[in-house]
TrEMBL record:
Alphabetical list of Gene3D superfamilies matching this protein: DD-peptidase/beta-lactamase superfamily (3.40.710.10), NTF2-like, domain 1 (3.10.450.100), Penicillin-binding protein 2a (Domain 2) (3.90.1310.10), Penicillin-binding protein 2a, domain 3 (3.30.1390.30)
Record protein name field: Penicillin-binding transpeptidase domain-containing protein
Record domain NTF2-like N-terminal transpeptidase: where: 52-164
Places the protein is found: Cell membrane
Family: Belongs to the transpeptidase family.
Transmembrane intervals: 20-41
Domain called Penicillin-binding protein transpeptidase: residue spans: 366-671
Listed InterPro entries: Beta-lactam/transpept, Beta-lactam/transpept-like, MecA_N, NTF2-like_dom_sf, PBP_dimer, PBP_dimer_sf, PCN-bd_Tpept
Length: 680
């Protein structure tokens, strides 16, 4: 009996073993099925997200004809529209408001009953009236032939729309502020422009249309492609005026062409003030990212003062973006702004002088700066050669732009803010520092033999050279003859520490408080000179000195102010700023005495200016740029001129890469005469 019971227990144990094997298998199968279901659900959710993203992407790209393929087949009809009408409604509204930078955020898709899903998201976009932010949309998503599709209604255009609502846009553009000179003469103004355009229905059809387009393109320096692209814009209708370009004059209008007078930006001085005033360009998507307050229509400053003072000049657009019912009754205002006209910016510039100084450079590469050394007022800021800002603002042809780009004289280069070695004009500063620290005795004669010199044999094959072989030289001789060897020796005598100490009183390393981008003036690439040669070269205005013409004029202001440096000022209401005791007045007096002789002495390098018939203080300079000492390099010619310690002006001009028998001095007389007549 006992064995029989034991046998039954053993049989029961064996009967339960398969259950422990089957259960884990079932659990694994259930888990696997759950995983598959999860993956499938995730994939379907991604499909639903992709659908909404497709819809908003078509809006952003203006591909309105693609919208219906994201929608349920009967959704248009159920809302009183056809697919064609949906496409046209988006196209008409989004084109009219100039919708750009359309971005979707906060997309949520949640499951509802009967395999439907609620879709919510937010859109932000730029319009001709400004930025619309975080518009909240809600719709539904359902499956059609196993593909997700969106329910559409007018609220998918703007959330507040329903039925046959429309969108109304009125824009009140601000008047851009003008840029005036010191005498209230315009440097940038708003004036009447002639806009060339075409009226599509007047061009004819077929070969006649092609012939007329070709004639317009030929007569007005356009390409046929430019005209056809303009005609293909979505808003164009047969009787509309389609603008092409701003023209100076109508040349006898070909068939289909028309002229319309519009208000636009004009630059009376043209190329003469382009690098100073700058120009405008159309507002781009990139501009809207940086400046959300802008409207997508209009222009923005692209260079010069138009860019630096753009916010002040442009003002703020006004107008209203609203939703109306089918009859035009206003329902909801989406955006409304009050127009604020731009403010006028008045400069210290004398436009007559500006134009005179530009033409004096005769399209040669160079720059001229004139300031009033007592106040810092900048009277003229000229960079040559230049470009026409009227063309840049109102539509430059590719041919004209390419001509500027390929011009080896680089008309787009602003030489006013480009650093140069100042050459021998800088000897005035070296002399003043030496006089201040007592290392330079103005009456001491240095014996110099020949046209080249080196301190010792450690200089190898490097020599300092000069032009005039004068055996015995003092400070006056050195400035009259512009003797590099004298200045090199005097700089070495005072030493780097004393020389740098004097230079540090000027504006080296300082940022200028001007609305013009420029690098600070530099003494050398490193904080100290790496050789005696570099120290010597710096003393006569070469080495690694980099000073732009505006900075040069600022530094030289000490000689018209008994040692006080006056900072430049370009806007009339800017505060005057100065730095006193940069140089001792006694040192200034001595330098001025010698610079007077540079003009009056028959041996002086600026003696030709004596023919003007009034007393001038001047210093010429030539900075040579070359790889090797025994070769001829590019030479930049400089002239510094003013009328002594009480001068009402200070003139600095630079001629880049001067040719034989050319100099900045030769180009200056007409400008100096004007300055004498009006500022002295």
């Amino acid at each position: 009996m006992t064995e029989h019971l034991r046998s039954q227990k053993n049989q029961k144990k064996k009967a339960f073993k398969p259950i422990f094997i089957i259960v884990p298998i079932i659990l694994l199968l259930v888990a696997g099925a759950g995983f598959i279901i999860h993956v499938t659900a995730e994939k379907k959710q991604q499909q639903r997200i992709a659908l909404v993203e497709d819809f908003t992407r078509y809006l952003a790209q203006g591909k309105y004809e693609s919208l219906p393929k994201t929608l349920l087949a009967d959704t248009a009809q159920r809302n009183g529209y056809s697919n064609k009408e949906i496409i046209e409604k988006y196209q008409n509204i989004f084109t009219a408001i100039d919708a750009k930078n359309i971005k979707m955020t906060n997309l949520k898709i949640t499951e509802q009953k009967d395999n439907k899903y609620q879709v919510t998201y937010e859109l932000s976009l730029a319009t001709a009236m400004g930025q619309l932010k975080n518009l909240k949309y809600q719709t539904y998503l359902a499956y059609e032939k196993e593909q997700p599709k969106l329910e559409w209604g007018p609220n998918m255009i703007f959330p507040q729309m329903s039925g046959k609502d429309k969108v109304s846009l009125t824009v009140d553009e601000p008047v851009r502020g003008e840029i005036l000179d010191r005498n209230n003469q315009p440097l940038a103004e708003n004036g009447q422009l002639q806009q060339l355009g075409v009226v599509p229905q007047k061009l004819g059809e077929g070969t006649e249309k092609e012939k007329n387009i070709k004639k317009i393109a030929t007569d007005y320096n356009l390409t046929e492609k430019q005209i056809t692209q303009a005609l293909e814009q979505s808003w164009v209708k047969p009787d509309y005026f389609v603008p092409l370009k701003i023209v100076d004059e109508a040349k006898g209008l070909p068939t289909g062409a028309s002229i319309k007078e519009i208000t636009g930006r004009k630059y009376p001085l043209g190329a003469a003030a382009a690098h100073l005033v700058g120009y405008l360009g159309k507002i781009t998507a990139e501009d809207l990212k940086k400046h959300p307050e802008l409207t997508s229509e209009g222009q923005i400053g692209r260079a010069g003062l138009e860019a630096a003072y753009d916010e002040t000049l442009r003002g703020k657009a006004g107008g209203k973006l609203a939703i109306t019912d089918e009859k035009g009754n206003e329902k909801t205002v989406l955006l409304e702004n009050t127009k604020q006209d731009g403010k006028t910016v008045q400069l210290t510039i004398d436009s007559t002088l500006q134009e005179l100084a530009y033409h004096a450079l005769a399209e040669k590469s160079g720059a001229t700066v004139v300031n009033a050394p007592k106040t810092g007022d900048l009277l003229a800021l000229v960079s040559s050669p230049s470009y026409d800002p009227n063309k840049m603002t109102n539509g430059i042809s590719q041919k004209d732009y390419d001509a500027y780009e390929k011009d080896e004289k680089k008309p787009f280069l602003n030489r006013l803010v480009t650093g140069y070695a100042p050459g021998s004009t800088f000897k005035t500063i070296t002399a003043a520092i030496g006089l201040d620290n007592g290392s330079l005795n103005p009456n001491e004669k240095l014996a110099i033999n020949g046209l080249k010199w080196q301190q010792d044999s450690s200089w190898g094959d490097y020599y300092v050279t000069r032009v005039a072989d004068v055996a015995s030289v003092d400070l006056k001789d050195a400035l009259v003859y512009s003797d590099n060897i004298y200045m090199a020796q005097e700089t070495l005598k005072m030493g780097e520490k004393a020389f740098r100490s004097g230079l540090d009183k000027f504006i080296f390393g300082e940022k200028m408080d001007l609305p013009l981008a420029m690098n600070p003036a530099q003494i050398s690439n490193e904080k100290s000179f790496d050789s005696k040669i570099l120290l010597a070269d710096t003393g006569y205005g070469q080495g690694q000195l980099l000073i732009n013409p505006i900075q040069q004029a600022t530094m030289y202001s000490v000689f018209a102010n008994e040692g006080t440096l006056v900072y430049p000022k370009l806007v009339t209401d800017a505060k005057e700023k100065e730095k006193t005791a940069v140089v001792k007045s006694s040192s200034v007096e001595k330098v001025n005495e010698d610079l007077k002789a540079v003009v009056s002495d028959p041996n002086g390098t600026a003696h030709s200016l004596s023919s003007l018939g009034f007393t001038l203080f001047a210093k010429t300079g030539t900075a040579e740029i070359k790889e090797k000492q025994d070769e001829r390099g590019q030479e930049n010619s400089f002239l510094l001129a003013y009328e002594g310690k009480n001068s009402g002006y200070l003139f600095i001009s630079m001629l880049e890469n001067r040719q034989d028998n050319e100099s900045a001095t030769q180009l200056a007389p007409n400008v100096l005469q004007y300055l004498h007549d009006h500022y002295e």
